[in-house]
Amino acid sequence: MLAKGFFTVLFLIISNAFMTFAWYGHLKFHEMKWSQNLGLVAIILISWGIALFEYMFQVPANRIGFRENGGPFNLLELKVIQEVISLTVFAIISILVFKSEPLRWNHFVGLFFLVLAVYFIFKK
Question: Where are the transmembrane segments (predicted)?
């Protein structure tokens, strides 16, 4: 059961890294010479290609982690875990890749409340 929880979280982290690049990575394309003349349809297709890898990890993560499939998490727990991972991965990528959005105190307060949400969702 511990291994299923570990792989669920690991796959969700990987999935969310791909998701962040699929959703926001194209905003950095203007800095890359090869992409400067691409139209919106091309950008959408590239993002879909990246999103394919997101789903290759997200779907197995949810199937492995879901209690009714023998995993340790119910549906609500899976969703809360995914949201916290999503925002954490996004924050890390925005700091390391975009470097234009500094984290401020209110972001940390919001993250603290997300951690509290996880605590209360998992509290029996």
Answer: 6-25, 37-57, 80-98, 105-122
pTM of the model: 0.85
pLDDT along the chain (124 residues), means of 10: 93 97 87 84 93 96 97 94 90 85 84 85 82
Residue 93's contacts (CB-CB under 8 Å, 6 or more residues apart) are 17, 20, 21, 24
Give the residue extent of every domain in the chain: 2-122
Determine phi and psi for 73, rounding to 5 degrees: -120, 145
Token pair 């982690």: residue: 65
CB burial of 85-118 (b: ≥16 within 10 Å; e: otherwise) equals bbeebbbebbeeeeeeeeeeeeeeeeeeeeeeee
